[in-house]
Specification:
Blueprint lengths: L3 E4 L8 E4 L16 H9 L5 E4 L2 E4 L4 E10 L5 E4 L4 E2 L6 E8 L3 E8 L4 E19 L6 H5 L2 E5 L4 E5 L6 E7 L8 E3 L2 E2 L3 E9 L5 E9 L8 E5 L1
């Protein structure tokens, strides 16, 4: 719907509503604007907000058997499309099922236009390595022993942990060798170097195998809250 302005001094002194598109307007910072209607449209324009879901985090070595993409917009659109070879979609579509297996990082990006500007959103299927930590009475851990420790997805080796070594146990910290080597280890805030690292091939729960640094204190511990910062 058009906008109107009220101008004095028109029609022999009588004011009245005039379509904003009929009132010339110029501004040097935006030569594309030719009238008040266009200036108001730009001033009052609100960008389309796009929400896209369907991605997730998975362990490296696993297979994701397809994903369900779903999305929404904050305003009407005149076009929309998905990447990864999917292309343009009907305007009323708000879901898409990707049926192919996924074994490596894959990002889906939805792009849409409201007729004035484009907006986009992305969601990714990401595969991560894990790091493992905990305590054990044994001075070495086999593959199963490492997988039985506490664990999380990670992209770096830096981690601050609290170990409960009650009953005489070794604190362990295991992470992918690709993350690098330890450069600063602190126990209770103090520099610490009384630990051993061994390079060990580890097969994770999803079947992926790679080298890990398996790290443990040299001496068996008894504390219930041993604060360790690995970096």
């Amino acid at each position: 719907m058009g906008k109107y302005v009220f101008l004095e001094g028109l029609n022999d002194g009588e004011g009245g509503p005039v379509a904003a598109s009929d009132v010339a307007y110029a501004i040097s910072s935006d030569p594309s604007i030719a009238n008040v209607q266009e200036a108001l449209d730009k001033l009052l324009y609100k960008a389309n907000v796009v929400s896209l879901s369907g991605g997730g985090s998975y362990e490296i070595g696993s297979t994701v058997h397809g994903v369900h993409l779903a999305w929404s917009f904050s305003k009407a659109i005149v076009s929309q499309a998905l990447n990864q070879g999917i292309g343009a979609l009907d305007l009323d579509v708000r879901e898409y099922d990707w049926d192919d297996d996924i074994t490596s990082n894959l990002t889906f990006t939805l792009t849409a236009s409201d007729g004035k500007q484009n907006a986009s959103a992305s969601t990714s299927v990401q595969f991560y390595r894990k790091r493992y930590w905990g305590v054990a009475a044994a001075p070495t851990l086999d593959n199963a022993g490492i997988l039985a420790l506490s664990q999380e997805f990670a992209t770096s080796l830096s981690k601050t942990l609290a170990y409960d070594a009650t009953g005489k146990k070794y604190p362990y910290y295991c992470y992918p060798a690709s993350f690098g080597t330890l450069s600063d280890v602190r126990v209770g805030g103090l520099a610490f170097s009384d630990f051993t690292q061994s390079l060990q091939s580890l097969t994770n729960a999803s079947g992926h195998t790679e080298d890990y640094w398996v790290t443990r204190f040299n001496g068996i511990q008894t504390g219930a809250n041993i604060q360790v910062a690995w970096a």
